[in-house]
Amino acid sequence: MSDSCPSGCVTALLHAGLLVSDLARAKSFYESVLGLAPHPQRPDLPYPGEWYDLGGGQQLHLMRLANPDADSIRPEHGGRDRHIALGVSDMTVLKSRLDAAGVAYTVSKSGRAALFCRDPDMNTLEFVEVG
After folding, report:
1. Which end of the chain has the lower number of beta carbons within 10 A, N or C?
2. For the chain, how many structural domains are there in total?
């Protein structure tokens, strides 16, 4: 905690939760395409889901629940949509994995080493090369 952060302020993003309509399809994307491994200690919750460790105490939670935005019109470029940003060590490897799986993506309009894609449920993911 820094000196400019008063007691009780927000200090970290611990997890992001995404809604998915088909858990098996989502797991295939997150595990086979992105290479994430399931967190072994997801508690018994009243809905199906999967948790993934992202390092540094951060997680991604998938929840199989009805998506209230399923029929919404989404912008073509994911950078102009709700999204989460995930760090990757090698953008070339990620692009190869997305290409092999037939997953469309767009590069960042800012010129950064970043790209955007959507999972099978149209959740937007940003990937930033962090080295």
Report:
1. C
2. 1
**Which residue is associated with the tokens 């992202």?**
54
Strands 83-88 vs 124-129: parallel, antiparallel or unpaired: parallel
Look up residue 71 and give its two tokens: 């029929």
The total number of residues written for the chain in this structure? 131
Token reading at 69: 């935005």
SS (H, E, C) 56-121: CCEEEEEEECCCCCCCCCCCCCHHHCCEEEEEECCHHHHHHHHHHHCCCEEECCCCCCEEEEECCC
The domain that holds 87 is classified in CATH as: 3.10.180.10
Write the single-letter amino acid at 16.
A
For residue 128, CA distances in Å to 74, 79, 110, 112, 116 come to 21, 12, 12, 8, 9
Please give the Cα distance from 35 to 88 (Å, whole number): 11
Residue 35 lies in a domain: yes
pLDDT along the chain (131 residues), means of 10: 73 91 96 95 94 94 85 79 91 95 92 91 93 70
